[in-house]
Amino acid sequence: MSQESIIDSVETLEAHLKTMRAAQAEFATFSQEQVDKIFKAAALAANKARIPLAQLAYDETGYGVMEDKVVKNHYAAEFVYNKYKDTKTCGVIERDPAFGMTKVAEPLGVVAAVIPTTNPTSTAIFKTLICLKTRNAILISPHPRAKKCTTEAARIVRDAAEAAGCPKGIIDWVSVPSIELTNTLMQEADIILATGGPGMVNAAYSSGTPALGVGPGNNPAIIDDTANVVDSVSSIMHSKTFDNGMICATEQNVIVLDGVYDAVKAEFQKRGAYFLNPEEADKVGNIVIVNGGVNAKMVGQPATKIAAAAGVEVPAWTKILIGETDSVEPSNPWAHEKLTTILGMYRAKDFDDALAKASRLIADGGYGHTSSLFIDTRETEKVEKHYNAMKTCRILINTPASLGGIGDIYNFELAPSLTLGCGSWGGNSFSGNLDIHQLLNVKSVAERRENMLWFRTPEKVYFKKGCMPVALRELKEVYGCKRAFIVTDSFLYTSGFTKKIEKPLDEMGITHSSFWSISPDPKLQDAEKGEELLRAFQPDVIIAIGGGSAMDAGKIMWTMYEHPEEKFDDMAVDFMDIRKRVYRFKKMGEKAKFVAIPTSSGTGSEVTPFAIITDAETGIKWPITDYELMPTMSIVDTDNMMTQPKGLTSASGIDVLTHAMEAYVSIMASDYTDAIALKAAKLVFDWLPKAYAEPTNVEARDHMANASCLAGMAFANAFLGLNHSMAHKLGAYHHIPHGWANAVILTRVARYNAAERPTRMGTFSQYQYPHAKARYAEMGRFCGFTGKDDDEVFENFMKGIEDLKDFIGVKKTIAEYGVDEKYFLDTLDEMSLNAFNDQCTGANPRYPLVAEIKSMYLDAYYGRPATSYEDEGLEIREEMKETPAPGQVEAEEAADEKKSE
User: Fold this and answer.
1) CA torsion, points 796, 655, 761, 677, in degrees to nearest 10?
2) Helices (H), 820-872
């Protein structure tokens, strides 16, 4: 097909589009070097033709000023080229090897470009150049009253591009414009660049093709009483007379504060403005605005011609006509966009009144486009008030709006463009100045990367039998503490246990006070009471001594003391990644240091960023997590653990093993946490039986203290898993001691996690495939269990755990802990959902379904054989939907059998 064949029917349009798509497919393979050569050649050609194109546009349309059109053509060629000459638009445009991100640019395809009659050549130059830079084809639909000049501009760019190597057919145009052809073009293109009137833009957005359209402008320019009057008036005169006011960003009305109104009026008159009297203003207004729209015959006309058409005599030197007015309603012609050399002028009693008038004028027909303010820029509060009030995407300060709005002349960060988006306010798909980036499809090639991990511990950890008195000296010698607040439980306090701390504090002259109203399962309400005493006492160090309850309550009290304005509900919000959480803990330790001294070997709270607290009003047990909760100092002194009763030794000891196991199979496990998790687990198998059987055995207690602290460090950094999530809820709902709540489900959860084909696996960049069984087997081998393969080692490991549980008196089922069956079943759904929602669940290697949690609870309650739930998969969830209370039928049958007996 000959390139010069015309497009005058739907058939010829479709034929040209077919040719164009083939050319664009070839163009899409061009390198950046090839594209930049074509881009430069086309820009040079357009620049050289700026004067004849301007003359042609003026002759054909009769709009504007030829000499100003030269500037617009020059701008479209030179400024656009300069802005994007070094911008990458082909292939790889960005590469970040460290983060594994590569961005690849691809063209959109065929661009349908609708060109307005007000800027026919400059807009054609602009759109063809940005399409060439982005390897897109462009088919132009010119305005019927400007088709000759528009197509000539496109031809000049096309010929230069083809001479520089561009495939033939990349730039084309509709030879005989019509509504039918324009609509067909918009429907069949890949994207539409729509610059023109509201009807055409609306048609583009209604075509079913992605569109980048613009909106009308009705720029209200405010002149503040702090503005430089001469500069402000000159800027507006320069803008309003440029191409006879046809750029849509141009000021349409000026709102002048009362204090400078007379001075502004005089300056306008001095610079060539003619002020119409009321009768003249009516005549001019009604000839420019007809039936609520601009009279096309008056667009871009000199002021003298408009006055003559309205029957108004004005001096020959008149540059613009100003009508003084007060109504901002649409019924007032002067309140509209006028696109010619007339300007409405309003008096504002103050700045707020000016803003109100400007806002209403924008609502009359300029939403999203442009607004202007002339002001002393030191008036920052007014500037801010202005840009907050204006619903426009360009807000120009002390700038001629016509050339200021199109960018890169008066502000060099505003992209040069002849298509100005108005955002959602103006019914557009984009805000700001259209640039090349909106004509690119950018592929993000994201390589898998592993997240940065960490290993965080308290500033100091002191351990070994008898270390506490020595470690406490640092409170005075290193930290300079003067007031200490001791947090403990009632048993330790009333038994005189805290005297071990009080004595060295007295010797150092550190004043101290104590709070001992801590429940075994610490309550939020306990912490709130303690916080009142803290605030009254104003300590510079908080010392929490006891089991996990005292240390956890102490951490919560510490948080409340440091930041009383923070809300507990916010602190308790879960997170997927602690680095990206919505709620951010504030810096701790500004008012007081925190010292944690454990008296049991289990929780590891002395070295963790966790605190478990129960809201007595709701019964919810909240694991609070943040590294700001990490103690300043931890003192692990075996002397404090020698009096643990057997039950506590059992519960806390098996808790240590659970910590180590969950940290080791966590999706966030690392070499750092693995080493100490393995050591902690082995210490438990080696020394927990002896500590349980021989409570006064110092060596066993010492090793178990270390195991607890090591496991704490492991899960402080690798986090825990589903075992703890479920145990937290068993404690909250049924008051099973935490360690035993972990133990009663420990091997069940391990078997569940060990599934080779889990229903869902955990999500974390380091966790590549389900391999929990292999991890359990590794731990089993380290702890002395053997076998021919992972399966056998795993089974022997599970048996070893069960044997250990039997030795230390852990019961087999949830029911054996005295949990009422009816209450258990009544709370099962809620408990399962809350376990799923527990903070610990996220690091589990197998991402659980609520139905699976529910089934594990039921199996653990009734003592059914443990399973991996590997074969049931999603069927469990479907069964749960159909069965109101899973397990309830069996429970009822068992109850019936008992009755019959």
Assistant:
1) -80
2) 821-836, 850-862
Indicate if 467 belongs to the active site: no
Name the 3-class secondary structure at 346: strand
C-beta atoms surrounding 271 within 10 Å: 16
Catalytic residue among 131, 166, 248, 783: 248
Identity of residue 245: G
Ramachandran class of 365: left when φ > 0, alpha when ψ lies in -120 to 50, beta otherwise = left
Residue 118: pLDDT band by 50, 70, 90 thresholds? very high
pLDDT at 898: 47
High-pLDDT (> 70) share of the chain, %: 96
Q: How far apart are the first and last CA of the chain?
A: 98
Predicted confidence (pLDDT) per residue in 24-59, tens digit: 999 999 999 999 999 999 999 999 999 999 999 999
The length of the chain is: 901
Quickly tell me which residue has 């129960």 as its tokens.
614
* C-alpha torsion 95→100→106→108, nearest 10: -130
Percent of the chain with pLDDT over 90: 82
3-state SS record for 725-742 = HHHHHHHHHHCCCHHHHH
DSSP SS3 for 761: strand
What's the sign of the alpha-carbon dihedral 764, 766, 768, 771? negative
DSSP secondary structure string for all residues of 199-238: HHHHHHHTSSS-EEE-----EEEEE-TTS-HHHHHHHHHH
Strands 431-433 and 420-422: antiparallel
Residue with tokens 């569109």, as numbered in its chain: 211
The partner residues of 420 in beta bridges, in order of sequence, read 433
Residue 149: C-alpha distances to residues 59, 61, 69, 878 (Å):
9, 9, 12, 69
pTM of this structure: 0.82
Residues 6 or more apart whose CB falls under 8 angstroms from that of 766 comprise 450, 451, 453, 667, 668, 670
